[in-house]
Amino acid sequence: MEKEKLKALLDDMSLKEKADQMLQLMGAFYQEDKEGILTGPARDMGVGEEDIQLAGSILGTYGAGKLKKLQKEYMEKQPHHIPMLFMMDVIHGMKTVFPMPLAQGAAFDPELSEKCAAAAAKEAAVSGLHVTFSPMVDLVRDARWGRVMESTGEDPYLNSRLAQAQVKGFQGEDMGAPYKVCSCIKHFAAYGGAQAGRDYNTVELCEHTLRDFYLPSYKAGIDAGAGMVMTSFNTVNGIPASTNKWLMRDVLRKEMGFDGVLISDFSAILETVAHGHSKDEADAARKALEAGVDIDMMTSVYSANLCKLVEEGVVDEALIDEGVMRILELKNRLGLFENPYKDADEEEEKTVILCKEHRNLAREAAGKSFVLLKNEGILPAAPGKKTAFIGPYTDNKEIISSWAILGDVASCVTIKEAAEKVFDPGLTTFCSGSPVLSERELKGLVGFGPGKPVSVSEEEQEKLLQEAVEAAKEVELVIMPLGEHYLQSGEATSRGMIDLPEAQVRLLREVAKVNENIAVVLFTGRPLDLREVSRIARSVLVVWLPGTEGGAAAVDVLTGKVNPSGKLPMSFPYCTGQIPVHYNAYSTGRPDNVGEVRFRSKYIDIPNEPLYPFGYGLSYTKFEISPVKLSGGVVTDEKAVTASVTVKNTGERAGTEVVQLYLQDIAASVVRPVKELKGFVKAELEAGEEKEITFVIDEPMLRFLRADGTVGSEEGEFNLFIGNSSDTDNQAKFRYES
Ligand code: NOJ
Q1: What CATH number is attached to the domain comprising 640?
Q2: Is 491 in the pocket of ligand 1 (CB under 6 A)?
């Protein structure tokens, strides 16, 4: 539809009709039992029948047949036959689940993430959906926060590359094209900065840190064309994001150039009352509208107040028109005025969802996301040797993931199912050895509903343990699939201690008493404190929450069919007390390697370094990286220099190394991080093969937020590092002269 026609449509809409375009309800409000809804949830929420009939979008329901019917009935009643938008959290897959976002961060592979997002978009689109609330691009530094699993990690550059890739995968060039959905960048802004890792907690960041570290990934997603942005629950500079005019009008819209639809997070506008920023719901509605929030997710703050506020002359109707126009434009970009059902297709649901192609991609992506933290020569496993798989994740479909609400659990491949196809049945045993969580830990999952694990009696636990110890005695290799419960990560799952669940620690200790050849396969949504696990196990493979093909991918890597190549996208702290620990920290005036030992910036009981740093990860082969060669010593505005290394696979099998480029601006108008990732290349090398890897260092790469508030570069010396982890000291120096 042409812009003038949209404008004419807007002009013809009543105030109520417009205000309700800005209302988003749950799909449950449109179920058959209309009376039950009106006298129950709708009444409690303060929305009436008219609002339900006029709401511009719904969230959380899917299915081609269901949504086509819903759309048809809705449009018949909508005074201007405006189609409705269907939105849902399709985060890292729909029915086919790909590795969780932090795992995708570990793959350091934007192309792969783009493919995963495109496959998720296709399953979502044929199921009738138009928008996905993804990707979450919040930078994270605190492993206590359960939502780190939804992020791609602690680095602004990696996060930005993956934000762009995912938006491209979901939307393509044109979100109206077949099998594409609109992508929604979230949570604007700095939701990942929750103090002490407690979800929904205050965020305290100075503007410099906000801009330098936290904002770039949102900007990257917006530049990639994301049609929507979601507000965050937290405050930014003391003002809740959802009513923060400076953040939304000045930063998001003016500076970042975002002209799409801004949606609140679930009830976030209403929560500004609890925050103590809005005095009541009407005040919250006015403030959010003035901040330019276009859709109120699942409260009646807009629908119950906007018309009144206009009639009383408190808000200008033009602000409502502006928001509604953006919503209509989004519907138009999706092509809904021409075809309100878009790609919804019952037949295609059958062929697209969980198709072979998507499952193969899920397996490839999972394999590429695994990070080998330690290996004292016991992996890869030889399927002809006597092997015991011991651990609660040996035959457990919950490895599919957390926050994959539509994931098809039944079709998830477990480690046992995959291993039975490869390992010699006469030589291989499988047992769980312990429950995932102890009785005490289960108490923390109050309110988690049906997915919550059931408790196992002490007697039963002893039996499981004894069976495991007996099995371990008999074999040459013990593979232990251990980890967090999937409900221990995701929204509202902050943890004060990031240890492996206690029943599993006991199991590991007991097994180690009878067999020292232990390879731990670690399922986790977050970095954990792995001191004991690393000490006991001879090999540790982090497989995150790997998705539908997780078990198959784990067996691929355990047997060496796939050589691990993942790198940590987030530091694994030495212990909880070290958090936040991230590689791109600022230099202090008293670094730990200079000056009198007593008065350095350090702990007296633990090291400063994390147990495993950002960018770290091993392979079954060995790589050597040569010293850095620079094409020149000076970068200018006109002249770039190149920095090259030769990477050689010195081992006996093919493998992939992620070669990483870091810079340090040695002295600047504001203190700069000790290292910043500026580029990476995945080098695939046959045994014995070598390749030259070259990075171009140009002026834009040196820019940062300067002391005067402008973005630009500053003359001076830089350290440059190229290596296979953020702790590399393979260094060269150059100057920048303007
Ligand atoms: C709340 C979460 O914070 C957000 O990420 C999600 O998209 C919405 N709920 C909708 O489910």
Answers
A1: 2.60.40.10
A2: yes
Same structural domain for residues 369 and 328? no
Question: Residue 373 pLDDT > 80, yes or no?
Answer: yes
Same-domain status, 279 and 330: yes
Closest CA to 635 of 574, 555, 535, 715: 715
Looking at residue 444, its pLDDT comes to 85
Of the chain, the percentage scoring pLDDT greater than 70 comes to: 100
Residues 434 and 565 in one domain: yes
Cβ contacts of 39 within 8 Å, gap of 6 or more: none
Q: Check if 718 has its Cβ closer than 6 Å to any atom of ligand 1.
A: no
3-class DSSP assignment, residue 482:
strand
529 catalytic? Reply is: no
Domain span holding position 453: 352-578
631-643 tens-digit pLDDT: 999 999 999 999 9
C-alpha to C-alpha distance for 344 and 346, rounded to whole angstroms: 7
Environment class of 48 (CB within 10 Å of its CB; exposed 0-12, middle 13-18, buried 19+) = middle
CA angle 256, 257, 260 (to 5 degrees): 115
- Residue closest via CA to ligand 1's atom 9 equals 266
Q: How far is the CA of 266 from the centre of ligand 1 (A)?
A: 6
Catalytic residue among 265, 345, 499, 529: 265
Q: How confident is the model at residue 587 (pLDDT cuts 50, 70, 90)?
A: confident
Same domain? 572 vs 644: no
Q: Does 376 lie in the same domain as 301? A: no
Report residue 217 as tokens.
Answer: 């990934």
Confidence at 450, pLDDT banded by 50, 70, 90: low
| Region of 484 on the Ramachandran plot (φ > 0 left; ψ -120 to 50 alpha; else beta) | beta
C-alpha–C-alpha distance, residues 430 and 428, integer Å: 7
Cα(560)–Cα(576) distance, integer angstroms: 33
- Per-residue pLDDT reduced to its tens digit, 276-334: 999 999 999 999 999 999 999 999 999 999 999 999 999 999 999 999 999 999 999 99
| Domain contains 273 | yes
Number of separate domains in the chain: 3
* Ligand 1 centroid distance, CA of 149 (Å): 14
Distance CA 492, CA 510 (A): 33
Which atom belonging to ligand 1 lies closest to the Cα atom of 232?
Answer: 3
Residue position matching structure tokens 């404008």: 7
pLDDT digits (tens, 9 = 90+) for 90-142: 999 999 999 999 999 999 999 999 999 999 999 999 999 999 999 999 999 99
Q: Pick the atom of ligand 1 nearest to 184's CA.
A: 7
Asked if the structure places residue 553 within a domain, the reply is yes
Query: At which of 309, 342, 375 does a domain end?
Result: 342
Judge whether 539 and 498 are in contact, CB under 8 Å. no
